[in-house]
Amino acid sequence: MFKLTDAEFQQFCDLILEQSGISFEAKKRYFVEKRIEKCFKETSFMSVKDYFRALKYGGSKEELMQLLEALTTNETYFYRHISQIESFAEEAVPLILEQKRKQNKFHLNIWSAASSSGAEIYTIGILLKETIPDINKWKINLLGTDIDRKILKIAEAAIYDKRAVKDVPVAILKKYFTLLSDGRYQLNSSITSMVKFAHVNLVDRTVMKQYKEQDCIFCRNVLIYFSDEAKRQVVHSLYQSLNKDGFIFLGHAESVGRITSAFRLKKFKKSLSYQK
Ligand SMILES: C[S@@+](CC[C@H](N)C(=O)[O-])C[C@H]1O[C@@H](n2cnc3c(N)ncnc32)[C@H](O)[C@@H]1O
Questions:
Q1: In a domain, 76, yes or no
Q2: How confident is the prediction for the chain on average, in pLDDT?
Q3: pLDDT recorded at residue 59
Q4: Residue whose CA is closest, atom 3 of ligand 1?
Q5: Cα 207 to Cα 245: distance, rounded to the nearest angstrom
Q6: Whose C-alpha in 41, 64, 158, 216 is 20 to 30 A from the C-alpha of 91?
Q7: 95 and 151 housed in the same domain
Q8: Hey, CA dihedral for 255, 109, 119, 80, is it positive or negative?
Q9: What DSSP string runs through 236-266?
Q10: pLDDT in tens, 9-62
Q11: In terms of domains, do 44 and 112 share one?
Q12: Which pLDDT value is given to residue 21?
């Protein structure tokens, strides 16, 4: 039977935290241990000690990624917490576009920084199409990133089951999705062509530095899994990635209040955001 000692379990948790920012509480031990067991059994290591050593000391980057991917929570769906995305499209975007027009800059950069299967960034694309009257004049760059490479493949394929589109208004579903013969929904290329996906670990400072000049960042429902220290580091990186006056939307239960005073709180009619 596979069983980690308390010390081994703690070593794995420390490594996971260091590599992904994700902090597991003791009550999650069964879940974490089961995932470690599954990943370990898919390798050829003879002992958990060898497996851990290879993960920790760099010999097994691929195995480490597989373990992190096995531990992520990918829950997402179209139109999730839509009041935030509506605030973005109806109030934040007009403010950003007005500023950009003054600067004679006709591009907009929006980033979903823990995109999972893409439902969030695609919902953003749909709302932008629906609300920007002169959208053809603008170069809209939508970016979805995630630590989980498997979920990014699903995002790129843009085919979803019924549950993922349950909150999509019927008229939007008809306009932007094609119902496939197996009952799933394929998002049309008018939206998928607006989005690029990339593999980015939020706690990788070097990679995060490459993402600059963002007008708005969505980082929803991921920082809840992070330690305070990791949250602080990620929020700092995201701050650096934003343009001046750019906005960040966190999950509706998340706030940066305890982490940093760098942002101004922005109250929209339907939700809150933070502004640089
Ligand atoms: C619960 S989903 C949230 C998806 C979407 N933002 C939403 O709110 O519907 C959390 C996502 O964060 C990703 N994630 C976890 N740790 C990460 C990290 N260190 N860097 C990048 N993405 C991470 C997971 O792979 C997962 O897809």
A1: no
A2: 96
A3: 77
A4: 221
A5: 23
A6: 158
A7: yes
A8: positive
A9: HHHHHHEEEEEEEEE-TT--STTT-S-SEEE
A10: 999 999 999 999 999 988 999 999 999 999 999 999 999 999 999 999 977 899
A11: no
A12: 98
Is 227:233 a contact under the CB 8 Å cutoff? no
Q: What is the mean pLDDT of residues 220-232?
A: 96
204 and 267 co-located in one domain: yes
In a domain, 1, yes or no: no
Domain identity same for 37 and 99: no
Does one domain contain both 96 and 228? Answer: yes
CA distance 200 to 192: 19
- Ligand 1 atom closest to the Cα of residue 116 is 27
Tell which of 71, 97, 116 closes a domain.
71
Q: Which of these three, 71, 106, 123, is where a domain ends?
A: 71
The CATH number that applies at residue 169 is 3.40.50.150
> What is the domain range of residue 51?
6-71
pLDDT at position 58 is: 79
Contacts made by residues 39-45, CB under 8 angstroms, sequence distance 24+: 39/63, 39/66, 39/67, 39/70, 40/2, 41/2, 42/66
**Residue 252 above 90 pLDDT?**
no
**Best mutation site among 222, 232, 238, 248 for ligand 1 pocket (most ligand atoms within 8 Å of CB):** 222
What's the rounded Cα separation, in Å, for the pair 144 and 209? 16
Q: Is residue 57 part of a domain?
A: yes
State which ligand 1 atom lies nearest to the alpha carbon of 200: 21
- Structural domains in the chain (count): 2
Statement to judge: residues 67 and 90 lie in one domain: no
**Contact present, 156 and 67 (Cβ < 8 Å):** no
CB of 219 closer than 6 angstroms to any ligand 1 atom = no
Strand partners, 97: none
